[in-house]
Specification:
single chain; alpha/beta; eight-stranded parallel barrel; 13 helices
């Protein structure tokens, strides 16, 4: 692991944003869900990330999620604001406001859609990091943004005093090892199926979707890795594998996580915002089949799971959405 201290925690939840059936943020459900995650062992909460549907949240909603997260966590967990923008000026504005709202850190996604060169990517990161005093996580997810953060760019970005970590959803383990060996960057696994492999080569923690549903086994895995207990860490990985498959395989992780959380009675609605839609019947059946293979997991009682495909059908538009600016 890196020689620098970790300001984010190790078990971080990529938080879903609960909505009402008509697509508005369900603030009581947000509060309850954050409290559930922290109480179950998470020491970091990433609001407004990919899983939180950042691309369809308004800026006021993003800032309120930070404020609510800080209030609910009450010092028990760090609150990191995710997302960002493919417009550097807008990203700077948003992260400055997030810092004022109480965020403990920021996670900057690689600029998407406009496909800048690596020089543009680096400039984007540096200018945002210059504009905040908060520690920064770079989010490397080329499957969604269209471009990776290349090895050479990571080495150059690591020289900025505020850029201290990477969330890796690229899955290039050789590159992760190389960057860990040559920088002090903290690494967070951004792929639920690869948490233990990432940890085994020096990652500092995880930012997980499946952790919305259950955090305790990830806490067990992290504590075991910290103690050098591979047997216990591997047992936690095996325990989680069918649940991870249910969440991450058949539909976007946000959609599956909300479907399962609603079936467990932990959020009021499984709705996602358009253009995301809930699972079709065939997809819901696959998720349910995967859940049938999940064994006993501390903190998870699947006997309470009551799927509601009608509630999940389609997607929703909020009554007043506005722009993200």
């Amino acid at each position: 692991m890196s020689n620098i201290s970790n300001p984010f925690g190790q078990v971080l939840v990529a938080l879903v944003t609960p909505f009402t059936a008509d697509g508005e943020v369900d603030w009581p459900a947000v509060e309850k869900h954050i409290d559930d995650c922290v109480s179950a062992g998470a020491d970091g909460i990433v609001v407004t990330g990919t899983t939180g549907e950042t691309s369809t949240l308004t800026d006021p909603e993003k800032l309120k999620l930070v404020e609510v997260g800080k209030s609910v966590a009450a010092g028990r967990a760090k609150i990191i604001t995710g997302g960002g923008s493919n417009e550097t000026a807008h990203a700077i504005q948003l992260y400055k406001a997030s810092e004022k709202a109480g965020a403990d850190g920021v996670m900057i996604v690689t600029p998407y859609y406009n496909k800048p060169t690596q020089a543009g990517v680096l400039t984007h990161f540096r200018m945002i990091a210059d504009a905040t005093d908060l520690p920064v996580i770079l989010y490397d997810i080329p499957g969604r943004t269209g471009i990776p953060i290349k090895y050479e760019t990571l080495l150059r970005a690591a020289k900025h005093p505020n850029i201290v970590a990477v969330k890796d959803a690229k899955g290039d383990f050789a590159e992760v090892s190389r960057v860990i060996n040559q920088t002090d960057l903290l690494y967070f696994s951004g792929d639920d199926a690869n948490v233990l492999p990432h940890l085994s080569i020096g990652a500092s923690g995880l930012i997980g979707v499946t952790a919305n549903i259950v955090s305790a086994p990830y806490r067990t895995m992290i504590d075991a890795v910290n103690a050098g207990d591979l047997h216990t860490a591997t047992a936690a990985h095996k325990m989680l594998e069918p649940l991870v498959r249910a969440v991450m395989t058949h539909v976007p992780g946000t959609v599956a996580a909300k479907y399962i959380l609603h079936g467990l009675g932990r959020i009021s609605s499984p709705r996602v915002r358009l253009p995301l839609v809930g699972p079709e019947d065939s997809e819901a059946a696959l998720i349910e089949d995967e859940l049938s293979h999940v064994g006993d997991i501390p903190g998870l009682d699947l006997s309470r799971f009551r799927p509601d495909r009608n509630a999940a059908a389609g997607g929703a538009l909020p009554k007043v959405h506005g722009t993200t600016r």
